[in-house]
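Researcher: Quick test of sequence recovery. Tokens follow.
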């Protein structure tokens, strides 16, 4: 693995740790998903938040999965950074998502963070699927297949 890949992995791990450790948006999402009132610090809840992470080239946009959400239908969250703080911008879901799709198992952002590619390896009885989302202003929308 090259030095750039190692740096990218370290940055991704740091983002997830920061979001889970602080009173940030991701922790609130994780809390709500767990349906518990106690704080769950330094533990990934049943949503499996943060196993897949992708950053834009400038590090200002992050795409983070939560494949365990809704009986492993899965979801992905878009976060943006302002200074040292991260805030959740949007939750992305497959339009045809079903239990055990594992949407978000693989996530990738384009260099400028405007396009997201999200995989669902359990989709359609393990035949897999890929979903493309593009940012339109401040909202990320599914890309039309036509």
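Model:
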């Amino acid at each position: 693995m090259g030095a750039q890949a190692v740096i990218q992995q370290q940055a991704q791990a740091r983002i997830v740790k920061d979001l889970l450790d602080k009173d940030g948006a991701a922790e609130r999402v994780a809390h709500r998903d767990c349906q518990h009132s106690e704080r769950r610090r330094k533990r990934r809840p049943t949503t499996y938040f943060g196993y897949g992470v992708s950053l834009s080239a400038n590090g200002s946009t992050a795409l983070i999965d939560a494949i365990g959400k809704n009986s492993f239908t899965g979801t992905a969250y878009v976060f943006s950074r302002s200074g040292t703080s991260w805030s959740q911008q949007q939750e992305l879901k497959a339009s045809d998502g079903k239990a055990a799709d594992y949407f978000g198992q693989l996530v990738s952002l384009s260099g400028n963070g405007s396009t997201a590619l999200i995989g669902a390896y359990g989709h359609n009885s393990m035949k897999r699927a890929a979903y493309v989302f593009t940012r339109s202003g401040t909202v990320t929308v599914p890309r039309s297949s036509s």
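The CA atoms of residues 79 and 88 lie 4 Å apart.
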